[in-house]
UniProtKB/TrEMBL annotation:
Alphabetical UniProt keywords: Membrane, Transmembrane, Transmembrane helix
InterPro entries linked to this entry: OxRdtase_Mopterin-bd_dom, OxRdtase_Mopterin-bd_sf
Lineage: Bacteria, Bacillati, Actinomycetota, Actinomycetes, Streptosporangiales
Protein name: Molybdopterin-dependent oxidoreductase
Keyword Membrane included in the entry's annotation: yes
Domain Oxidoreductase molybdopterin-binding: 300-430
Gene3D superfamilies xref list: Oxidoreductase, molybdopterin-binding domain
Recorded superkingdom: Bacteria
Transmembrane domains' residue ranges: 33-60, 97-117, 138-160, 172-189, 236-254
One Pfam family cited in the UniProt record for this chain: Oxidored_molyb
Keyword Transmembrane helix: yes
Cited CDD domains: SO_family_Moco
Amino acid sequence: MSDRKNVTAWLREHPPPGPFRPGFWRSPLRGPWLTSVFGLVLLFGIPIIAITGLVSYAAYDPHLPINDTTPEKGWLGFYLFDWPTHPAWLYRVTQGVHVVLGLALTSVLLAKLWSVIPKLFTWPPARSPAEAVERASLLLLVGGAVFEFATGILNIQLFYVFPFSFYPAHLYGAWIFLAAFVVHVAFKLPKMVRSLRSRSFLRELRTRLDATQPEPPDPDGLVPPSPAEPTMSRRGLLAFVGGASLITLGLSAGQTLDGPLRRTALLAPHGRDYGPGPNDFQVNKSATAMGVRLADTGPAWRLELAGPHPVRLSRAELLAMPLHTYALPIACVEGWSTEQLWTGVRLADLARLAGMAPGTAEVLVVSLQRGGSFRRASLSTGQVADPRSLLALRVNGTDLSLDHGYPARIIVPNAPGVHNTKWVRRLSFHPSAK
């Protein structure tokens, strides 16, 4: 025991150079109160992001064939449920909140990490087995938060630079982060409450730079032993972080709200014009990017209906069938959404034409596209049976453009954008597995 104490004492007296030395971190603003303010914001925001993110995964109906991008999820899929088609705007709201709130809280997360960074460089790293466990949980918490926010932001911006599949990595990373987050909150919540009560928030907002003083010394070592002179007040730091969050919110929410505000989404890849006319709305992947050629969509194109009575239909034959028009949104995992007026043939009518009894059919949709991860998608019985679910041929009164899925695309209320398959070439109807 004495040998271990001697080793610990020697290590404490001989820290490595740089951030491991106590005098390295000298900001007079750091302390338990400031950390707790940022922590309180994240305490309310992160559960909302987590819940909407898990709901987004459920919206993919991963129990259906083809749709499951995480086949080894096991018990992590305990919460999954049949995704509804009502209300049509539900996925638009949940995924929009997930993305926009995540972007807005990025500055708060970075500020929280800045406020506790001395703790990450404590030397020696662990003085007891219990402290080693706490440090390991902190590593999972910080690493999980950085991984989830970084991969999410890259995915929103369509920067697919991952050496792994985004969907399973983001899902598994979320569960690891949430487990560490729950443990962290359980241990730190009483301390956070005490820290918040130690100072008046309103008084701090009235405190100018010349009156800014360090917080009292704390056992966690967040307050520096020899603080430097302040160059910013705490209210200035809070205003900077809060202002960054509001600006991020204002420059990204437009892609979810759509309409005239789409042009304000300067931080999102879809806040721009796509040319004049009825097809001026977001395009996630162009026909060229997906390997769809004009020859594939020309007069020789036929829609294949697979089922008890296989059928092949030209676009002219589809246009001669009963057509229906609905205003329905498309919402994508990247957070953008738009509502347009779609005209086409009901999937339920096509299922009956292929020999399926009403309300019994699931369908596997196959696209002409040659690239991308969603060349095929499964739709549930409820999605096929919904009268608003269409094989769309027109949008806003005119033919679909090639980038929007000409000659035909799927439109299903409340489905994730990638399941509204473009450039459809085959619908394979089959009885529900349930």
